[in-house]
Amino acid sequence: MSSGRLTRLRMSSILDVPLAVGLALLAVCDCRAVDVTFTVSSNTDDADEISSGTVYVTDGSSFFSSTRMGFRFQNVTIPAGATITSATLEVFSNSNGTTSFSVDILAQDADSPATFSTTAYDLTTRPITTAQTLWSTGSVSYTVGQSIVSPNFASSIQEVIDRSGWASGNSLVVMTTANSGDKGIFKRSGSTTYAPQLHISYTVPTVYYVRPDGSNSNSGTGSDAANAWASVVHAATQSLSPGDTVYVMAGSYVGE
Predict the structure, then answer these.
(1) Given Cys at both, which of 68, 113, 205, 256 links 123, Cβ 3.0 to 4.6 Å?
(2) From start to end of the chain, where are the E strands?
């Protein structure tokens, strides 16, 4: 069984079909999330800001010791209502050497944020998500171009996707806030090959309906008789995904 959220069976009346209900609750197959990757695609879409408020854009490198780093991803094609199961930021070392760093990773709390500018404090004046995730490394020996991947910070991305103004195709900004240590990484302006990437896995829940005058040959995705299924048992045998919901409409279900 998938480790995702169990399918919920919502009932608008009390039905004497405990076996069918049990089957529907367990009708979550080994379904997979949608995996997408977005890459910083403009030289003004990654920046870092130091304690004086100076913002560096298009200078080739960012540093984890900066008060805040920002990474903007355009055309993020994640639909509203999606459940984010995983989100990681991948950046790339710009030098050889051994070092460590500790930052918090989060997102800008905005529907579709603008690109970065050299305006003082451009990054630290942007609203941020409540959810933050610690990203801390021990001492690591790096080489030029080596991949550096963050821990899962899905909760921050979920906050953005859950905004009422979010729509597929919006821009999304990931940011880090420095705690200690340092490490240099490539900006897109320093290397298009090593431009930062955002990796996201998500699921999109679907709502299904069962009603006595429906038909099991229907899609099940509408609440009217022309689209709803007719049988709870039929619903229980379908390949549903984590987070999907099955509504059982009021009525008499014979033979369930």
Answers:
(1) 68
(2) 8-11, 34-39, 46-49, 55-57, 61-63, 68-76, 83-92, 97-99, 101-107, 133-136, 140-142, 147-149, 170-181, 184-186, 197-203, 207-210, 245-248
Mean pLDDT lowest among 117-126, 158-167, 219-228: 219-228
Alpha carbon distance 245, 236 (integer Å) = 11
CB 138 within 8 A of CB 82: no
Q: Which of 202, 199, 200, 244 is closest to 221 using CA atoms?
A: 244
pLDDT at 240: 78
The pair of three-digit structure tokens given for residue 20, joined into one six-digit string: 């069918």
Two tokens, residue 107: 């997102």
Q: What tens digit of pLDDT does each residue of 119-161 get?
A: 999 999 999 999 999 999 999 999 999 999 999 999 999 999 9
Phi, psi at residue 251, to the nearest 5°?
150, 180
pLDDT tens sequence across 76-109: 999 998 999 999 999 999 999 999 999 999 999 9
Beta bridge partners of 70: 47, 175
